[in-house]
Backbone:
């Protein structure tokens, strides 16, 4: 079977002609009733052929759309006759005349649906083997097959459209930032390894054997140095690299819209960030985002939504009920640091199986189980109801506004776990119950993040954003006395429950930077070795500065409605970080390694 | 001394204030007589301070320029008094009133030279240690010191300007290509190693131990795959990587304006390439490039200029004189494959020492020596004149249009050497004699390159551009019979003697691509292993396509007049491929290497 189509394809190659002096006049998404009577030249792929009433019809496809093309023996007998070789995905150029489709044959789903082009002459530009999957949006091929033949996958209208939207979004960003005085400045890819947060990708140096470059996790240090360099406003659509085990929505390389500004405070950076997003959503998908964006403090987000990137497209908030039930007979409540409830309006119809699934789900976030109460007409149906006194029931009813038909979920324990478990449960139930309007775009700022977070395992503070984030001006002195209390000058932009951007005002004073390293338990020597050049730079007249970085891939997912990050990247990697098309990574010649002064470690077999 | 300035700087830190609600109203390059009387807020660096007549003058500098700022005790006594702490490169914000400079004090060299701003209030935003070199264009610091303190070097107006021009050029390119239907599509950095031409930078894979990614030498294969994918018109400002020993004007990472188009021939690609360059030169430095560009075949370029990137800003052409002198008594001429002359008008005054220098110079290109003749009033002064008959002298005089006062240089031997030696000699003499108008921008196309070049050492053909370049349509059949004769569908854009761009129509037929690999002596298995995915792709309906890539760094050098590529890149590497600021590359922790499954090779001491 395979053989046969290859044979036919080879046989048909004799019909291939060079382009010669043929020049395209229109794309396949352009011709309408306005163009009837015009002589046109179109080029593209044969999407679909059907023979009907002695005529041959081809849907000719290019990046932009489809045009119906007709080969008629009355128009050009030879052209019609050779058109019999045409098969799916053959490449052709046609000259023809635009005419209206016959009465009743118009297709209102297509821009070009009112017309067809009757062929006066044509050239076969290339043949094609039978493709391993059909070039159409409703597609059942496995993702691995699609990735191996990515050049065919990208021909599908939806993926082609994603690439077009990505381009338009990037252009919109660049225009906006250019108009606002930002310079796009390219920072190096071969940089210094400063393991901090994620794992670096390393690049062995041949000239300096035994030494390594690292691919940048972000241009953070370079953009701050550009501010010290007086560049004032910098941006870059920067590729970033993190060698982490990949989750479903991660890629080893991803793109960041990276911005930095001098002589500004948090308000000015946020105004630019909002402006950028507003312009992008307006220009690319004609959605108006609010001006200004609503804001929420980190405390409020954690309190009501349990996560620092609240999805505000639906209500159903978390509520602290510690004071109401902490004296109950339910043992778990008595000892808990925090007890929160998630009341679900009209959720009392959930089956036992659904509740079991949700219980499994919250375990991902460290929960041991999931307490629940169904509010029925005559009773509270619940494994824990018996532990609750009348007063506690009344307290819950009032606090949570409970009504017959609701279900309430509870989580008790350490605050981190309670918030994560219920916050994510909220999202899951919101999705399950169809509470989310997927056409809505809800954007907001989350502000006043803590500067540091306590790492209980390592018994030390980590920087919540990164170690260059400035403390809130009112909290600078706390850095030395009570670091855990310090708020930061950091802000995240959240859209539909995704953190699409985040930034901060940076430390521009070398003494404060040293205090910060001290609070993070980074010794003077270590700080010097890793970030000496930054500490130096801060001593030579660093201006106040701050910035923001957006995840471009995530923004494009929201703009296109794509479900997978792999659908918005031209040549993505699998979760094993491989490219199925080129088969990267691959083994390399020993001479290449020898030149680099490295060798493979023997595999230890255990 | 060092101690003292650090002490003062630390002492002065107590004056530092936060920005608060101060917002800049203007840049330091904006205020003119039009603004007199306005209240403004400026921020920047103290470029220079002088105290005069009880007043303190500061040249306040930002990315864009300078504004003179005056602290006067009459305006605000306290502000004036604290201003005494101000030192070079301190960062400050001032509120003030624009006023004309006093009679006779205007500085016509500055945009802001007619005005000054008298300070009503100010804030110290940061102090600075004494910089290791002065922030000014006439600079005598070593390049290594400048690279170590790159964030100070970039404050110099010339370098800041280079970054601004680079940004504007990149924006101009993107707008032009966007308007012409190109999509900017990002291709991967973690790709497959296909050693071909230059050496790859490798990235060890942690997830797939023993395997390596390569950083792209160019997105060549991906852009062709994007054409197979129907993307129609692609571009990218793409970082490219080559692990080569660095010459003065090379960097291990550099930026390419990378374009590819479907359904076009050479003329259409060249039209886009010209349009892009014309728009860039017009928009960025207001220079008009010709429409269309002049063209020269590769044969003509080699014949007249000896190089494939002729500098046409001056005449003084190479001339083949083989037929005139090949029978002379000069032994070297008798056996030479090619004899060429370079007549230099009015060059007879060159000293023996100058000629000796030029003789040394041509040896770089493989020449053994340099024959010359000075045309004097009464004689031909020359070591070789005695070997030339009257007829040969008459022949040379006529062929070369020799006149008294000229000098002629000769080179005889293999064509490659003769052309390289005389072609580069021409450039050297043109520069020495001031024949080059450095304000001129001369752009042209060189076309009809040979497809293959013979590698005498390896006794095989190499691709002159790359193995995907299409043969000239008229020469396709020669590929199997006489590959050395095949012209290619390739073209270079040359400006002022630099190859700023190059491209070709690509092979879009898998059979022709296989013939090409055969001509290059790349076996079927090797071709399959390295480029199997491309060969596959060509069988699934690849459209005719071609493209062009420009060296952005080189273009910016021409636009800015920079002499070094390091002056147009924000954070360049040295010729040892190191970054003196961050000290990359560096050693890394053994645990990092262990995770990657590699180790350092023991150094073999010989």
Residues:
């Amino acid at each position: 079977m395979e053989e046969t189509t290859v044979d036919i394809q080879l046989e048909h190659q004799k019909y291939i002609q060079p382009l010669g002096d043929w020049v395209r006049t229109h794309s396949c998404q352009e011709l309408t009733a306005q163009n009837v009577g015009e002589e046109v030249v179109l080029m593209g792929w044969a999407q679909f052929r059907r023979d009907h009433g002695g005529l041959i019809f081809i849907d000719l496809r290019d990046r932009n759309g489809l045009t119906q093309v007709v080969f008629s023996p009355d128009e050009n007998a030879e052209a019609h006759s050779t058109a019999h070789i045409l098969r799916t995905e053959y490449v052709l150029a046609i000259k023809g005349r635009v005419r209206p489709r016959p009465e009743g044959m118009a297709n209102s789903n297509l821009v070009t649906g009112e017309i067809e082009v009757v062929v006066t002459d044509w050239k076969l530009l290339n043949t094609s083997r039978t493709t391993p999957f059909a070039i159409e949006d409703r597609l059942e091929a496995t993702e691995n097959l699609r990735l191996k033949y990515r050049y065919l996958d990208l021909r599908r209208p939806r993926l082609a459209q994603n690439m077009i939207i990505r381009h338009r979004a990037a252009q919109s960003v660049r225009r906006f930032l250019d108009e606002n005085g930002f310079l796009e400045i390219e920072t190096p890819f071969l940089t210094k390894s400063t393991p901090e947060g994620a794992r670096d990708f390393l690049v062995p140096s041949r000239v300096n054997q035994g030494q390594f470059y690292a691919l940048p996790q972000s241009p953070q240090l370079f953009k701050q140095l550009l501010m010290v360099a007086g560049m004032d406003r910098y941006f870059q659509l920067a590729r970033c690299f993190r060698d982490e085990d990949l989750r479903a929505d991660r890629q080893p390389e991803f793109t960041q819209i990276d911005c930095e500004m001098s002589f500004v405070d948090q308000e000015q950076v946020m105004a630019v960030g909002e402006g950028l997003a507003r312009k992008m959503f307006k220009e690319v998908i004609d959605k108006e985002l609010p001006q200004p964006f609503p804001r929420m403090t980190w405390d409020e987000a954690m309190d009501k939504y349990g996560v620092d990137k609240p999805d505000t497209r639906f209500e159903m908030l978390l509520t602290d009920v510690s004071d109401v039930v902490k004296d109950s007979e339910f043992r778990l409540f008595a000892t808990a640091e925090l007890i929160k409830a998630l009341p679900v309006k009209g959720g009392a119809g959930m089956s036992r199986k659904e509740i079991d699934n949700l219980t499994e789900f919250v375990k991902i976030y460290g929960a041991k189980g999931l307490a629940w109460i169904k509010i029925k007409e005559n009773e509270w149906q619940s494994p824990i109801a018996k532990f609750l006194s009348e007063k506690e029931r009344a307290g819950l009813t009032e606090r949570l506004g409970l009504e017959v038909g609701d279900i309430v979920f509870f989580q008790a324990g350490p605050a981190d776990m309670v918030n994560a478990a219920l916050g994510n449960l909220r999202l899951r139930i919101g999705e399950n119950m169809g509470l989310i309007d997927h056409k809505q775009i809800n954007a907001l700022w989350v502000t006043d993040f803590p500067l540091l977070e306590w790492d209980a395992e390592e018994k030390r503070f980590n920087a919540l954003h990164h170690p260059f984030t400035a403390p809130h001006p009112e909290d600078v002195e706390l850095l030395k006395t009570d670091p855990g209390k310090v708020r930061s000058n950091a802000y995240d932009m959240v859209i539909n429950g995704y953190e699409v951007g985040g930034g901060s005002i940076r430390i521009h004073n070398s003494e404060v930077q040293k205090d910060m390293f001290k609070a993070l338990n980074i010794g003077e020597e270590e700080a010097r070795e890793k970030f000496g050049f930054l500490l130096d730079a801060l001593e030579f007249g660093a201006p106040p500065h701050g910035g923001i970085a957006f995840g471009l891939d995530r923004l494009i997912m929201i703009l296109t409605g794509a479900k997978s990050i792999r659908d918005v990247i031209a040549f993505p990697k699998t979760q094993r970080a491989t490219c199925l098309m080129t088969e990267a990574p691959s083994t390399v010649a020993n001479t290449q390694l020898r030149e680099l002064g490295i060798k493979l470690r023997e595999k230890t077999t255990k």
About this structure: Chain B touches chain A through 133 residues (CB under 8 Å). Residues 148 and 533 of chain B are 44 Å apart (CA to CA). The first helix of chain B runs from residue 2 to 12. The first strand of chain B starts at residue 39 and ends at 52.
